[in-house]
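Bumping my old thread because nobody answered last time. Still need a sequence for this structure:
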């Protein structure tokens, strides 16, 4: 039996152990009684840093790009707040104003004569968004395969749209994938009403060519004996200085010897109380993370997958019990689970083209935030007098320009506790 470990700067080493005679594959080891400490990994934390704001900004870019003149008042943008992932105590308008290289602000009157902030995309942001659309078109087959494989992991090839929405950023799906993507593949996908009246997405046909996990593809890291016995071992890596105790290492050695159950295979025969079942759960998430373009997702995003993936209660405990496979980052007041093998320090090993686009958006955000804090950005308030209804639909009205200096702590609307409109004196 071979074991593969990631150490140092992503280098891999391995060793072999013979399969113990009389070994019972259904035996349960006492991992529950073994406490594994959490050790901070600064390199992987750096990968997560700023991810929440980047995701929210990119989603706002997608929303604004679909609007007339790429411009919308704040109360229209607030309708999407639930999918932005921002803290509830953060004003959306305050967040948007941090990044003037991406969002330009103006002010307009609505039909009630109320002054409201209105945001549009800068030319630089719009051009980068069009590049992103080109990358998505060029990688459409890969994107559709990822979505198919996600549905193939489930028992009935169905997932609620709510669950897919939680994963769409990680999968690389467009923000409006239901309207702009799914209708183009009516031979593959169908919207389906679930027993609880939610809408789900169903995969219409099974594809055997896709039902091969990433671990099975990585046969180069497995010995001939491993493949013959179907005892595939997961790549393992630990944070420098982790110090795995001997009894934990002993359990890990035995656990890696267990048969590997493909996440695409029927696992109803497995006893959920055994380590064989736990290895199957780890295999499911190992595959799921490989379906994401950056091999990570927030822990809460998989909380609704228990029934669709036929998982036992408290299934996410495998993330703590296998710190050599998964790392839990606690950056940004949330828990993000990262597949360790996918990173060499901060560098992702298999780089998806969308990652480059996102990094360029992140660079624009950092530049805008720095320049804004230095007072380099001014905003012009366009006060609309002509057709207020047209303004509400996202068009700026003409009028007198009012210049005001913008900085982080002295904002025109900072004294208001709502992203809604304010009434101006007549």
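Sorry it took so long. Here it is:
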């Amino acid at each position: 039996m071979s074991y593969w470990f990631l150490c140092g700067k992503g280098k891999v080493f391995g060793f072999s152990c013979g399969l113990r005679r009389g070994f019972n594959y259904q035996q349960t080891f006492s991992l529950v009684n073994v406490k594994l400490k959490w050790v901070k990994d600064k390199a992987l934390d750096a990968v997560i840093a700023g991810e929440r704001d980047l995701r929210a900004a990119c989603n706002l870019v997608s929303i604004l790009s679909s609007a007339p003149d790429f411009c919308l008042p704040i109360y229209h943008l607030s309708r999407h707040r639930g999918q932005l992932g921002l803290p509830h105590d953060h004003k959306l308008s305050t967040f948007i104003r941090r990044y003037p290289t991406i969002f330009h602000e103006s002010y307009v009157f609505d039909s009630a004569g109320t002054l409201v902030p209105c945001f549009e995309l800068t030319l630089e942001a719009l051009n980068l968004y069009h590049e992103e659309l080109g990358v998505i078109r060029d990688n459409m087959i890969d994107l559709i395969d990822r979505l198919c494989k996600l549905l193939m992991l489930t028992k009935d090839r169905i997932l609620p749209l709510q669950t897919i929405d939680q994963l769409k950023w990680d999968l690389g799906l467009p923000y409006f994938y239901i309207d702009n993507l799914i209708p183009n593949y009516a031979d593959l996908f169908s919207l389906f009403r679930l027993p609880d009246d939610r809408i789900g997405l169903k995969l219409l046909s099974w594809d055997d060519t896709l039902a091969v996990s990433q671990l099975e593809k990585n046969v180069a890291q497995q010995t001939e004996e491993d493949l013959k016995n179907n005892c595939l071992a997961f790549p393992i890596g630990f944070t420098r200085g982790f110090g795995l105790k001997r009894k934990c290492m002993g359990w890990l050695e035995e656990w890696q010897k267990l048969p590997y159950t493909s996440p695409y295979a029927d696992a109803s025969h497995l006893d959920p109380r055994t380590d064989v079942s736990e290895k199957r759960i780890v295999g499911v998430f190992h595959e799921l993370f490989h379906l994401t373009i950056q091999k990570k997702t927030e822990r809460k995003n998989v909380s609704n997958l228990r029934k669709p993936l036929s998982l036992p209660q408290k299934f996410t405990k495998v993330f703590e019990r296998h710190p050599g496979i998964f790392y839990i980052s606690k950056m940004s007041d949330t828990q993000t689970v990262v597949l360790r093998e996918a990173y060499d320090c901060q560098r992702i090993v298999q780089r998806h083209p969308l990652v480059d686009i996102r990094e360029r958006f992140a660079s624009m955000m950092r530049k805008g935030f720095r320049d804004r804090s230095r007072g380099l950005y001014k905003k012009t308030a366009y006060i609309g007098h002509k057709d207020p209804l047209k303004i509400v639909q996202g068009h700026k009205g003409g009028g007198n320009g009012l210049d005001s200096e913008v900085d982080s702590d002295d904002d025109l609307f900072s004294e208001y506790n709502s992203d809604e409109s304010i009434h101006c004196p007549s």
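The chain has three domains: 45-120+350-379, 139-206, 212-348. Let me know if any region looks off to you.
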